[in-house]
Structures are given as structure tokens and as C-alpha cells.
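> call design_seq(struct)
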């Protein structure tokens, strides 16, 4: 077991609301904190009392409740939960047009457990994120079973006469990025954690049922980054569109710029729904949108508009796509997740990852532990 120390931090910060399309600060007043918390409590009670099975995964009843298949916006309006919309949208970053997603996905990302945690206004973190990975590396390296910076180049899922599948993995040789060494791994069981659409690649050899199911997913785009020299205010700048319910931003777009302890650095998060053309979802395309937004915010504040990148440096840009892979309400009602979960163990292949549960590390860890227990026959605890 890999262990890392944790500590508790308080979540505080000053927020302001801007229309990122115009760059203007807007007079949006979010609901009072107590109204938001009361709404979240009512939401959590509704989810927990009616859909408690969602914490474990997509173990839906044969007759899926209609309320899980309607849009989150319709559910909110049905239960008079408007006070939670802005908060829910921010928690649902990376889910595209969050108001239109089936309530099933909103109930999983905005889980009762997360609502309870939010009331503490704190979170548990490790002061050294890399420590977990270094200790994991040390543990796996003891058995010589770790292949860092590797690529699966070939996969043969058919079983040989001894009952083994074969996986070919390529790794860099020394510091030479172009020189590659291929290693053949024989295994009786395989755990796959890539997003399901990635398993549609010909080299993976998807079965007809996998092809049928994985092709139904629509996955969103989600990016994060750090910029230096943006000359933005030292606070959290949330994107706001007064034409939308609760003034949530229109996607694709930037969710928020946040100041950091370093005075010249800001972080940003950017999202786009699955329907957005993929050719715009490139590092260059996202950088261009971020820079244009910074220019609008600067211009509206009376600061000189930048030419080109105008002194703005992109310290880091990360693409988390494909993100929040979902199907529509009709597919949910037709038993999509029952068929998906029936793939577990077929051909000695097992599956986990956010598409199989949710983008919540604690819940996903529990789900993965259950998958591993079924895969290995070794029960937890």
C-alpha cells in the first residue's frame, strides 16, 4: 500500500464576475451562501433518498427513473433548486454544457458526499503531490513491472495455449527519445483504464459489443493552464453570461482565471462540449482563445491591449480530453450501463476509469478497488 501524509487546508478566496465575451465586469450577485447551502442540502437529500446506488457506480435499476434521464436544468426547475446552479456548474467543469447533461451525471459529480465535504469548507491534501508517484514508482519497481513513459504498441487479446494474452510495450532507451525498446508482456488478466473511445483504435481489437457501446460515448474537452504576465486582478475572475440561467458561462470558453501566490501567475480552466469541432481543440487554438480573452479583460479595464502574446507567457497548458464521457438520456433508459458493466471480466479483461463511474477520486478509488477484488478474487478489508 502506498501512503502519503495529508494535511487540511481552508478554502477561501475573493471572486468577481466578468463577461469574458466583452471583458466587462458584470453586476451579478450570486445567491447568499446560506441559500446555496440549503439548496445543496436539499439536492443531496433528493439524490441520497432516491438514487443512493449511484455512489457505487452506474448500477441502475432496470426501470431507470425518468428524473435521471431529464436534463439537469429541468431537474433544477422541477425541484426549485435554482440557488445551486452557479455552484453546480463550477463543480461540473469539463462537462460541456452542464445544464443540458442528463441529471444522472450531475448527481454523480455533485454527490451527497461532496456536498457534505463542502460544508466543512476545507479539503485534505498532501503538501507534495509527487510523493505519491515516487512511492508508487518505488513499489512497482521492486518487481521490475514498471514501464515509465511507455506506449502500448500492440495488443493480442486472444489467449494462447497457456491462457495468456500478449501486450507489447515500447519505452525510450536511455535519454534518446527516438530510440525505442519493445517489451512483450504476457498476462492472464488485463485491467484497462483508458477512456472507452480510445479503446476503439484498431490495435486494441475491440469486440463487436465494445464497438457498439464505446462508440455511443460523447466526450467533452477540458484544458487547464498557467499564464505569466496576464496583468489581471489578484482575485478569482469567474466567467459570467447574464443571458443564461444563474448567469453560467456559455461553452466553449474559459471558466475562470485564478490568481496564485506568485504575483505574476494566473491559472485558467477552459472547456468545450463534445459537439465542438476537434480541430479547434488544439494547444494553439486554446492559447489563442485564452489570449483573446485576456486582451478583452485588459481592454475593458483600461489597460493597453496586447499585440500577439503581448508579454503573456504560457507557462503550462494541459489537455485532459477526452473528459466526462457520457451518453444521452435515451441510451441510459435503454440499459446502456447494464450492457457496459456486463463487459467486466469478458475475455479476462476488466475496466475502470471515470467513464465507468465519475470524476471523483474518492468514489473512483472505491469502484476500482471493487473491480480489482473481482479481478483477482482477493476481497478488500
Amino acid at each position: 500500500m502506498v501512503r502519503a501524509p495529508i494535511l487540511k487546508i481552508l478554502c477561501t478566496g475573493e471572486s468577481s464576475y466578468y463577461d469574458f465575451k466583452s471583458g466587462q465586469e458584470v453586476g451579478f450577485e450570486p445567491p447568499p451562501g446560506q441559500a446555496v447551502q440549503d439548496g445543496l442540502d436539499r439536492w443531496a437529500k433528493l439524490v441520497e433518498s432516491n438514487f443512493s446506488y449511484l455512489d457505487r457506480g452506474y448500477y441502475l435499476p432496470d426501470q431507470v427513473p425518468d428524473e435521471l434521464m431529464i436534463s439537469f436544468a429541468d431537474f433544477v426547475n422541477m425541484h426549485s433548486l435554482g440557488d445551486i446552479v452557479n455552484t453546480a456548474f463550477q463543480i461540473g467543469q469539463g462537462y460541456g454544457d452542464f445544464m443540458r447533461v442528463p441529471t444522472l451525471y450531475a448527481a454523480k459529480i455533485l454527490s451527497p458526499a461532496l456536498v457534505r465535504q463542502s460544508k466543512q469548507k476545507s479539503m485534505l491534501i498532501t503538501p507534495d503531490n509527487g510523493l505519491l508517484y515516487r512511492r508508487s514508482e518505488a513499489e512497482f519497481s521492486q518487481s521490475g513491472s514498471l514501464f515509465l513513459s511507455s506506449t502500448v504498441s500492440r495488443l493480442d487479446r486472444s489467449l494462447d495455449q497457456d491462457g495468456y494474452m500478449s501486450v507489447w510495450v515500447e519505452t525510450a532507451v536511455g535519454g534518446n527519445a527516438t530510440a525505442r525498446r519493445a517489451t512483450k508482456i504476457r498476462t492472464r488478466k488485463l485491467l484497462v483504464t483508458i477512456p472507452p473511445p480510445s479503446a476503439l483504435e484498431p490495435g486494441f481489437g475491440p469486440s463487436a459489443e465494445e464497438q457498439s457501446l464505446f462508440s455511443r460515448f460523447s466526450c467533452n474537452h477540458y484544458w487547464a493552464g498557467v499564464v505569466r504576465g496576464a496583468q489581471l486582478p489578484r482575485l478569482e475572475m469567474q466567467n459570467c453570461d447574464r443571458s443564461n440561467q444563474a448567469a453560467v458561462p456559455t461553452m466553449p470558453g474559459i471558466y475562470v482565471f485564478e490568481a496564485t501566490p506568485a504575483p505574476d501567475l494566473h491559472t485558467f480552466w477552459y472547456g468545450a462540449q463534445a459537439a465542438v469541432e476537434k480541430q479547434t481543440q488544439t494547444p494553439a487554438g486554446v492559447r489563442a482563445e485564452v489570449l483573446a480573452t485576456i486582451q478583452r479583460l485588459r481592454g475593458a479595464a483600461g489597460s493597453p491591449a496586447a499585440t500577439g502574446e503581448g508579454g503573456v507567457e504560457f507557462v503550462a497548458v494541459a489537455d485532459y480530453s477526452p473528459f466526462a464521457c457520457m451518453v444521452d438520456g435515451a441510451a441510459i433508459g435503454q440499459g446502456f450501463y447494464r450492457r457496459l458493466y456486463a463487459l467486466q471480466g469478458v475475455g479476462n479483461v476488466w475496466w475502470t476509469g471515470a467513464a465507468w463511474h465519475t470524476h471523483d477520486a474518492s468514489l473512483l478509488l472505491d469502484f476500482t478497488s471493487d473491480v480489482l477484488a473481482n479481478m483477482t478474487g482477493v476481497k478488500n478489508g
